[in-house]
Amino acid sequence: MLYQMTVKGLLLDFYLLSYAMVPFLFLAPIGWKLADRFQKKKLIITIDLLRIPFVLSLLFVQGPEQL
Questions:
Q1: pTM summary value
Q2: What whole-number distance in Å separates Cα of residue 42 and Cα of residue 45?
Q3: What is the pLDDT along the chain (67 residues), one digit of tens a residue?
Q4: Quick one: which of 43, 45, 46, 18 has its CA closest to 32?
Q5: Which string of DSSP letters, residue by residue, matches 23-63?
Q6: Burial 30-56 (b: 16+ CB within 10 A, else e)
Q7: What separation in angstroms does the CA of 28 have from each of 20, 21, 36, 41, 43?
Q8: Which of 5, 26, 31, 65 is the most exposed place for a label (fewest CB within 10 A)?
Q9: What's residue 3's pLDDT?
Q10: What is the pLDDT of residue 55?
Q11: pLDDT value for 2
């Protein structure tokens, strides 16, 4: 029984790690190119402005089933 719980825990760890790392592996090279090409201050301001609608959309969530 302990073996099954350990394997399930390892599989869950692997799933969560891969879930967190996959976007980073694909988007990091793009971010590095953008960071090298543009001024840092303008890039940060632009990304923050693009992020505002996504954050404000959370105001319209009425329950956990809408997430």
A1: 0.52
A2: 5
A3: 555 567 777 788 888 888 878 888 888 998 888 888 989 899 899 999 999 999 999 899 888 887 7
A4: 43
A5: HHHHHHHHHHHHHHHS-HHHHHHHHHHHHHHHHHHGGG--S
A6: eeeeeeeeeeeeeeeeeeeeeeeeeee
A7: 13, 10, 12, 18, 15
A8: 65
A9: 54
A10: 93
A11: 52
Place of tokens 């971010």: 31
CA-to-CA dists, residue 19 to 13, 23, 56, 67, angstroms: 10, 8, 25, 18
Amino acid identity at 42: K
31: its two tokens: 């971010």
pLDDT in the model for residue 59? 92
